[in-house]
Amino acid sequence: MQVIQEDNSTFQDDFKQAKKRLKKQQKQLLFRRIMRNRGIVIGGSTMIFLSLFALFGPLIVSYDPYEMIVTDRLKAPGGDYLLGTDNFGRDLLTRMAYGARVSLSVGLSVALLSCLLGMIIGLLASYFRSLDNILMRICDGLMAIPGVLLAIALVAALGPKKENVIIALTIVFIPNVARVVRSAAIVVREETYIEAIRAQGAKTWRIIVLHIAPNTVAPLVVQASFIFADAIITEAALSFLGAGIPAPDPSWGNILHDGKVVIFTAWWMTVFPGILIVLSVLGLNLLGDGIRDYIDPHTTK
Amino acid sequence: MNPEKLLEVKRLRTHFKTETGRVTAVDDVSFHVNKGEILGIVGESGCGKSVTSQSILRLFDEKYLVKYEGEIIFKNEIDLLKLSKAQMRQARGNEISMIFQDPLSSLNPVLTIGFQIAEAIMLHENTSKEEAMAQAVEMLRLTGIPSPEKRVHDYPHQLSGGMRQRVMIAMSLACKPRLLIADEPTTALDVTIQSQILDLIEDINKRFDMGVIFITHDLGVVAELCDRVVVMYLGQIVEEADIYNLFENPKHPYTKGLIQSIPHMDGDREEELHVIAGTVPSLENVPVGCRFAPRCQFADEQCNSQAPELRGIGDGQKVRCWHAEQIAERKEEVYATS
Predict the structure, then answer these.
(1) Which domain covers residue A217, as residue numbers?
(2) Distances from the Cα of A75 to the Cαs of A71, A132, A254, A257, B200, in angstroms?
(3) Residue contact A196–B171, C-beta within 8 A
(4) Would A21 be classed as within a structural domain?
(5) A214 to chain B: which residues are within 8 Å by CB?
(6) Rounded CA separation B172/B237 (Å)
(7) Which residues pair with residue B32 across a beta bridge?
(8) Which element (helix H / strand E) includes B214?
(9) Does residue A149 lie in a domain region?
(10) Pick from A236, A232, A230: which is nearest to A258 by CA?
(11) In a domain? residue A241
């Protein structure tokens, strides 16, 4: 009798250990699959680097982003100023670090806000046929106007402030999200499991929020990373044109704007923020592609 | 003994609005299910079996897609077609529930199975989440899923097809409905699992005295499971009979053809399988007379011009055929030469 019990308990232990081992293996496999995906690795590490730069850069740099030292105007990189100074004698690295905060936070807020609102619109359009035509035609209308132009018009109407830039860009990008979510949700809506939960007596809202919405998240995440990148470019374009973040505040676009007039004497004012914009956009696009490949079972090699 | 009627469908018509006009997928269908009875609905693809079952639950979009006519009387008092949307929602899952053909796609991939069963419970009962989860475990145990307290946290992709169908059954039984509609629940499963699921449905039917409408195109399954059978062809019922009469004494030529089409295990291997000649006409151009006439070897003038009514011919058997009596006598030679 005792022997059997002992056997049983060791079996239980074995079982638990086997389960643990299996879980660990699964985690390792997941990790390896992510690591094998170059897009996620390169894009992800670029974005981690840039986020750290935005978070801790301003704490490390030794200058004030607004302090003008007139005697040190347009100093070349090297010496006291690692990346040189701008035409007002402000340290470029400092301004780029503070600018990273502005640019990335604008991009992130736009990505989050437009995804949230776009998702709501997309879900409504996919489920209620009467709303579908109205909402999608409005989206078509918004998409017909070039993004930068629409954003300029909106900022001009609202006034140049960081919050208004975010609102304007959000409006520009909502239609993209709404379309992606709608097309994903229409597929999900016809699935048997939606019919099954309806046959269980679930309310429409419950079906939309609990059963359809989570199934549209995968394409939405991919779209979000592209919008993040697009928002950074568009914000930079707006600031470059003087319709974005107002003047003394640093943003990558603003620094480019200031550097435009002195481009032949002070190349560093254009090149360094330019590199940051390229890096962030490239990183986000690689990340988005990587996530898409990772999620989509058809691209598994 | 006069069994109590659980559900009675009276002259149900389901019209679909399509771009080319109105298509009547279910045309003048009447049948009933008694308490604790398993009723089979048989017919080939596109004959309106599934549409009938989904009409009972009113699952189609009534605003744009579909229009119902007739009556569906539940428990001798409620006409389901007259209920408001909210009342209908209350009835779904609670009084009548449904399991679907493909267990692989009838569970939401992003939610755990425990959550999905618990949700079905919480939709109709005022219970806490913990209680609903505990009930979900019980339901899983009832449907024969091993170690259900671990399985509740699994996602659908972690289970096999048979297990998923068990989960579906657990979900549809969660609120102890009076009527279960099973829409080809075993078609997507392999044979051993199929018989397990059939046993489960039979067991549940006996244990809870639950009415079951079992939709299938597999006459073997029907013979094993059902008490009474309705045979459908092109949106209409062509024959209704108890299980014995259906196989021993089929009246409608279509039913005869179906039964002859079952391959026999002890038959000659060289022999070709029997088929019913022709194909099912499209619902958009239904034959004028008897709908089966173009494929029926007994069809005459009357069959081609006048549509027969479903009529009782004793012993609870009903048939939609002008010449049922004459054809029934010619038992052996039917289709022998096809």
Answers:
(1) 37-299
(2) 9, 57, 19, 18, 83
(3) yes
(4) no
(5) 108, 110-111
(6) 27
(7) B8
(8) strand B211-216
(9) yes
(10) A236
(11) yes
The residue-averaged pLDDT of B223-247 equals 91
The residue to which tokens 């408001």 are assigned: B84
| Lookup result for tokens 């995968």 | A218
Contacts of A174 by beta carbon, 8 Å cutoff, 6+ apart: A114, A117, A118, A121, A139, A142
Sheet holding B179-183, edge to edge: B96-99, B179-183, B211-216, B38-42, B228-233, B236-242, B318-319, B311-312
Of B106, B30, B125, residue with least CA distance to B72: B30
* CA–CA min distance A215, chain B (Å): 7
Which residue matches tokens 């999620």?
Answer: A295
Give dist(CA B288, CA B284) in Å, integer: 12
Asked if B111 lies within 8 A of A211 by C-beta distance, the reply is: yes
The span from the CA of A19 to the CA of A13, in Å, is 10
pLDDT of residue B228: 92
Per-residue pLDDT of chain A (301 residues; tens, 9 = 90+): 455 555 666 677 777 888 888 888 888 888 888 888 888 999 999 999 999 999 998 888 878 888 888 787 777 788 777 888 888 888 889 999 999 999 999 999 999 999 999 999 999 999 988 899 999 999 999 999 998 999 999 999 998 889 999 999 999 999 999 999 999 999 999 888 998 888 888 888 999 999 999 999 888 999 999 999 999 999 999 999 888 888 788 999 999 999 888 888 889 999 999 999 999 999 999 999 998 888 876 655 4
Looking at chain B, the domain(s) classified CATH 3.40.50.300 span 5-232
Judge whether A23 lies within some domain: no
Which helix (H) or strand (E) covers residue B229, if one does?
strand B228-233
Cα A140 to Cα A117: distance, rounded to the nearest angstrom = 16
CB atoms within 10 A of CB A149: 10
Q: How many domains does chain A have?
A: 1
SS3 of B14, please? strand
- The CA distance from A216 to A223, in Å, is 11
CATH code for the domain of A143? 1.10.3720.10
CA distance A173 to A171: 6
How many angstroms away from the CA of B49 is the closest CA of chain A? Answer: 17
* Span B137-168, pLDDT tens digits: 988 998 888 888 888 898 998 888 888 988 98
A202/B106 touch (CB, cutoff 8 Å), yes or no: no
The closest CB to that of A199, out of B59, B119, B174, belongs to B59
Tokens of B133: 């989860």
Element (H, E) at A141: helix A129-144
Is A280 within 8 Å of A47 (Cβ atoms)?
yes
Give the Cβ contact number of residue A289 at 10 Å: 18
Q: Which of A193, A203, A205 to mutate to test the interface with B (most CBs of B within 10 A)?
A: A193
d(CA B317, CA B115): 45
Report which secondary-structure segment, H or E, holds B67. strand B66-74
SS (H, E, C) B145-158: CCCHHHHCCCCHHH
Query: What are A81's two structure tokens?
Result: 């100023």
The full length of chain A comes to: 301
**Hey, what are B314's tokens?**
């004793």
Q: Domain B5-232 sits in which CATH superfamily?
A: P-loop containing nucleotide triphosphate hydrolases (3.40.50.300)
**Alpha-carbon gap: B97 to the closest alpha carbon of chain A (Å):** 6
